[in-house]
Design goal:
This protein is an alpha/beta fold and 289 residues long. It is built from 8 helices and 9 strands. The protein has a 6-stranded mixed β-sheet, sandwiched between helices. Strands 2-1-4 form a 3-stranded antiparallel β-sheet, with helices on one face. A hairpin with a 2-residue loop joins strand 8 and strand 9. This is ABC transporter ATP-binding protein.
Length: 289
């Protein structure tokens, strides 16, 4: 893609093609390559000369304060925002799920899942995806009858029918209650295990990032300001060795000085009989729950 404004995001990336932005993760096959990306609104650069490589099969989480440009970056990768300059190479097959499920209320769930697919796909395709997210029995329901967690699973099913090589998730758990959120996180981990696609999850939740990610990025001032691998054994818990140190480091990068150390001291004073926070299965090696 040329670096002129108003040029479309190029979606012809194949493993091993075209030189991408130099990063410490470039040795692996790339699912996404971004070089010199800039996106401005009213003369202000929300994304400013950003370079990024995302690897095939890698679960990456993007953290950042509100307004730092992380959702804008996700929209660019999804092909929903083309008013850019720079080079963006993404897979042809990609899908996105947002915080709001965005289901059409006048279409039954299975028809929502097939929305946007070319041709006349059969209901069985939707039902297969709904089965994968544990929602097969709700295929014929109206969206208004779904719980928040069910609606979000329907949104994930709609992404899965596209057989994506890149799955983009823009804070999909943000509106869910705590217990439903845990189940949704586990579901996404299991889907990643089965599908093997690259995932980019945008979130504000540092613990969520560390429980799910192979790699965590912190975005600041329109660029990737911090990039770290999460080398924790799986399955993981909030109390896993090394978790608190990583949390503290990420909170510091996010400008929340001392928050991780304060929480660590609080945890250390709790009764040893208190069970640690919920574990997440390793999407590759753990036992799915």
């Amino acid at each position: 893609m040329a670096t002129d404004l108003h040029r479309p995001v190029k979606s012809t990336l194949e493993p091993g093609s075209a030189a991408g932005a130099p990063t410490s993760h470039q040795d692996a096959e790339a699912a996404v390559r971004v070089d010199g990306l800039t996106r401005s609104f009213d003369g202000r650069a929300v994304i400013d000369d950003l370079d990024l490589t995302l690897n095939t099969g890698e679960f990456t989480v993007l953290l950042g304060r509100s307004g730092c440009g992380k959702s804008t970056l996700l929209r660019v990768l999804a092909g929903l925002d083309r008013e850019i300059s720079g080079t963006v190479l993404v897979p042809r097959r990609r899908a996105v799920a947002f915080q709001a499920p965005r289901l059409m209320p006048w279409k039954r769930v299975w028809r929502n899942v097939l929305l946007g697919l070319p041709g006349k796909p059969e209901r069985a395709i939707a039902e297969q995806a709904l089965t994968e997210v544990g929602l097969a029995e709700r295929a014929g329901a109206w969206p208004k009858t779904l719980s928040g967690g069910e609606a979000q699973r329907a949104s994930l099913a709609r992404a899965l029918v596209r057989e994506p090589d890149l799955l983009l998730l823009d804070e999909p758990f943000g509106a869910l209650d705590a217990l439903t959120r845990i189940k949704a996180q586990q579901l996404v981990a299991e889907l990643w295990q089965r599908r093997g696609c690259a995932v980019l999850l945008v979130t504000h939740d540092v613990d969520e990032a560390l429980l799910l990610a192979d790699r965590v990025l912190v975005m600041r001032n329109g660029r990737i300001a911090y990039d770290t691998s999460v080398a924790l054994d799986r399955p993981r818990e909030v109390g896993s060795p090394g978790f608190t140190d990583l949390r503290s480091r990420l909170l510091t990068e996010l400008g929340v000085e001392g928050a991780g150390r304060t929480q660590a001291r609080t945890e250390s004073t709790e009764s040893p009989d208190v069970s640690p926070a919920h574990p997440h299965p390793h999407p590759r090696h753990g036992d799915p729950s």
